[in-house]
Specification:
GO molecular function: sarcosine oxidase activity
Distance between the termini: 33 Å
Protein name: Sarcosine oxidase subunit delta
Pfam families: SoxD
InterPro entries: SoxD (IPR006279), SoxD_sf (IPR038561)
Strand order of the largest sheet: 3-4-5-6
Number of domains: 1
Helix content: 10-25%
Strand content: 25-35%
Bound molecules: zinc ion
């Protein structure tokens, strides 16, 4: 069972209290983009074996969206943070690097 802490209200609960919202930190494209960029945005998602960044909503609590960094293999949660940021906070990245040497943050431009 995955246990998450909502960074908005501080509640720690099992995943059944939350609703998954897919991959976090997607680069959105709009009118004027080329077909390849739109296809990537619309259909292609990361499916890593390891560190992953996801959007979650505290569905049975405060109702707010947030981001979670976790390992898809071990279910380790490296941390949760605001959904109002475009990339994981340095504190979260440092925590991941400490537990997963060799891991590196990919560039989102
Ligand atoms: Zn909450």
């Amino acid at each position: 069972m995955l246990t998450l802490t909502c960074p908005c209200c501080g509640t720690t609960a099992e995943e059944t209290e939350f609703a998954p919202g897919g991959e976090a930190h997607l680069k959105r494209v709009g009118p004027g983009s080329d077909d390849a960029a739109f296809e990537e945005y619309m259909f292609l998602r990361e499916n890593p074996k390891g560190v992953h960044f996801e959007r979650w909503r505290h569905a049975y609590g405060c109702g707010k969206w947030f981001h979670a960094a976790r390992c898809t293999v071990t279910m380790d949660v490296f941390g949760t943070y605001s959904a109002q940021v475009t990339e994981p906070p340095q504190e979260i990245r440092d925590r991941i690097s400490a537990r997963r040497p060799g891991w590196s943050w990919r560039e989102f431009a």
